[in-house]
């Protein structure tokens, strides 16, 4: 029995690997490996973040199943001395004939000392953003790897593993699935395509295989270059709300992972396993799954697309203060209620479909204005009540690193956006939501950073705005999001980030169906009765589905 049968987390970003996941990864590495077990007298295995040895144990077992005679040499890195010693002893006891060396060291700091090449590199590195490590470490990693953007530390592991992988070697990697589809993951995706032959991607989505808030994925790759996207297998496993009649009961995700379908776990959770290939390997491309059926559906949608959400206006995130506890609140009472700079604030609590729930009553102390068409900080001396309040928090406000580095005034909001733009009609939507929630705002209120908003071009007609709202809140757009971007958070929640939303389609606003959709959006805005609104929304869903799918 392995001494770590459940995933555990440590404060330094380490997430230990469940045994079944370790076994599956090792199995996939053997499947795609070109290593010659019959002719090679020995094999070298590396785990650069060994932890309690789950990955190494699985790899050793799989190699032994291929050859009982081959000499297995193992090197692992572990920064915790007690864990390293325990892992060393445990593997030695399990496999007395295996040469094991678990080094007490940080792999990223020790890589320059490694002169040998490894046939199998298996890894589940820590999930730590370089921002947490500090600017100096982040800069160092960026310079050494050549990776750009906001890099996480596991990106650096991917880079360095290539330096020590043998010519016929193969690597298996467990990591967060975030890098598959986010902008800051572009440089590492491009690096993998250019420097590795990518074999398979398995996105475990919201399966909660780890107790930590990590949505894991597996990638397997060997030395070389990825030149054919159709050769890269892609599997996704996400929770489903729909129990199919053909759903199969299973004791574990890993018992059904090789077959497409809907599966029910003993705890009642339903998961949908989908299989396809990597859609695109071009520079900057998101890594999403493609299948013939999905591609056919997307082509149909594109043929009926008149324009995209990016054509409506610039999609922006809401304000970011870097001191929400001071600037933002829903209880500005007493003397605080009279602060001159207080303004209404829209947050995710106000979210609704087409129209706002208008429930939050939150406000922000907004310290910016416009002068000569330029965004500037207000002169705090002109607002004595607000100044007096902010001065009580001077220590916290003045010590904000972002503000200091940018040579900004101590009382400024970090990202105020454009104060003039708040006054215009805008479409607001939640960042994280199960269902899309896009709503119209004409109040002039400021938008918080937990939401995005469309800064609508002046040339856009009201009808086109209404049609955009119709599409944005439809069940069709949920389907479009899932097929096009193939990514979710826990419990079926979606990230409605600008990079996704800007690609949403809009049909020709002059067609009969589009005009009918516009009519129902207007009715929803004007209608006070909730039941009637629900009927209109149902009709609206039917119309949008007809436009794009009929």
Layout: helices, strands, pairs:
Blueprint: H1 19-32, E1 42-47, H2 54-66, E2 71-77, H3 81-94, E3 99-103, H4 107-110, E4 118-123, H5 130-133, H6 135-145, H7 153-163, E5 165-176, H8 186-195, E6 196-203, E7 216-223, E8 233-239, E9 248-249, E10 261-264, E11 270-278, E12 289-290, H9 292-303, E13 307-308, E14 313-317, H10 324-327, E15 328-329, E16 342-346, E17 363-365, E18 368-371, E19 374-377, H11 384-391, H12 394-398, H13 401-405, E20 426-430, E21 432-433, E22 438-441, E23 446-447, E24 451-456, H14 462-472, H15 475-484, E25 494-495, H16 498-501, E26 505-506, H17 512-526, H18 530-549
Question: Can you describe what's shown?
Answer:
This protein is 32% helix and 23% strand. The chain has 550 residues and is of the alpha/beta class. The protein has 3 domains: 19-32 and 39-282, Vaccinia Virus protein VP39 (Rossmann fold, 3-Layer(aba) Sandwich), CATH 3.40.50.150; 296-312 and 460-550, no CATH class; 313-458, no CATH class. Strand 2, helix 3 and strand 3 form a beta-alpha-beta unit. The longest helix is centred in the C-terminal third of the chain and has 20 residues, at 530-549. Residues 1-13 have low confidence and may be disordered.
* Strand coverage percent: 15-25%
Q: What value does the Rg take, in angstroms? A: 27 Å
Q: Please tally the helical runs, counting DSSP H or I stretches of 4 or more residues.
A: 18
* Low-confidence spans: 1-13
Helix coverage percent of residues?
25-40%
Termini separation comes to 56 Å
CATH architecture field of the largest domain: 3-Layer(aba) Sandwich
Tally of DSSP β-strands? 26
- Overall geometry comes to globular
CATH superfamily of the largest domain: Vaccinia Virus protein VP39
């Amino acid at each position: 029995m392995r001494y770590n049968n459940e995933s555990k987390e440590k404060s330094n970003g380490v997430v230990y690997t469940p045994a079944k996941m370790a076994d599956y990864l090792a199995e996939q590495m053997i499947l795609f490996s070109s290593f010659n077990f019959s002719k090679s007298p020995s094999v070298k295995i590396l785990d650069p973040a060994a932890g309690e040895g789950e990955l190494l144990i699985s790899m050793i077992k799989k190699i032994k199943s291929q050859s009982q005679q081959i000499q297995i040499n193992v090197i692992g890195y572990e920064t915790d001395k007690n864990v390293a010693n325990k892992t060393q002893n445990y593997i030695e006891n399990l496999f007395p004939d295996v040469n094991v060396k678990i080094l007490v060291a940080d792999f990223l700091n020790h890589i320059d000392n490694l002169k040998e090449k490894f046939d199998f590199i298996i890894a589940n590195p820590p999930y730590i953003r370089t921002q947490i490590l500090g600017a100096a470490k982040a800069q160092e990693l960026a310079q050494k790897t050549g990776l750009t953007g906001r890099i996480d530390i596991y990106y650096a592991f991917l880079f360095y593993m290539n330096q020590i992988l043998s010519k016929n070697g193969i690597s298996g990697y467990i990591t967060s699935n975030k890098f598959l589809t986010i902008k800051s993951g572009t440089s590492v995706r491009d690096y993998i395509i250019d420097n590795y032959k990518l074999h398979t991607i398995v996105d475990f989505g919201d399966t909660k295989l780890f107790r930590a808030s990590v949505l894991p994925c597996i990638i397997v790759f060997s030395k070389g270059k990825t030149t054919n996207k159709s050769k890269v297998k892609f599997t996704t496993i996400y929770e489903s709300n729909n129990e199919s009649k053909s759903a199969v009961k299973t004791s574990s995700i890993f018992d059904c992972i090789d077959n497409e379908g809907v599966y029910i776990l003993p705890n009642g959770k339903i998961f949908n396993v989908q299989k396809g290939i990597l859609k695109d390997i071009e520079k900057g491309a998101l890594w999403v799954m493609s299948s013939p059926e999905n591609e056919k559906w997307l082509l149909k949608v594109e043929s009926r697309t008149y324009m995209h959400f990016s054509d409506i206006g610039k999609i922006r995130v809401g304000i970011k203060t870097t001191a929400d506890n001071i600037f933002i609140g829903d209880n500005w009472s007493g003397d605080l209620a009279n602060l001159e700079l207080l303004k209404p604030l829209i947050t995710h609590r106000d979210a609704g479909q087409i129209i706002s729930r208008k429930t939050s009553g939150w406000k922000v102390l907004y310290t910016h204005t416009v002068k000569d068409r330029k965004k500037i900080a207000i002169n705090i001396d002109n607002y004595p009540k607000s100044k007096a309040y902010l001065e009580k928090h001077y220590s916290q406000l003045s010590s904000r690193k972002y503000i200091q580095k940018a040579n900004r005034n101590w009382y400024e909001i970090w990202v105020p956006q454009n104060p003039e733009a708040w006054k215009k009609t805008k479409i607001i939507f939640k960042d994280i939501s199960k269902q899309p929630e896009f709503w119209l705002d004409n109040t002039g209120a400021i938008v918080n950073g937990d939401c995005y908003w469309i800064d609508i071009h002046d040339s856009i007609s009201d009808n086109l705005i209404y049609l955009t709202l119709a599409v944005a809140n439809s069940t069709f757009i949920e389907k479009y999001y899932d097929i096009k971007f193939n990514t979710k958070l826990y419990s079926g929640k979606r990230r409605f980030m600008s990079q996704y939303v800007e690609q949403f389609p809009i049909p020709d606003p002059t067609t009969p169906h589009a005009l009918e959709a516009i009519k129902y959006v207007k009715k929803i805005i004007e209608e006070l009765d909730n039941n009637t609104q629900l009927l209109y929304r149902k009709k609206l869903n039917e119309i949008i589905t007809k436009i794009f799918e009929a």
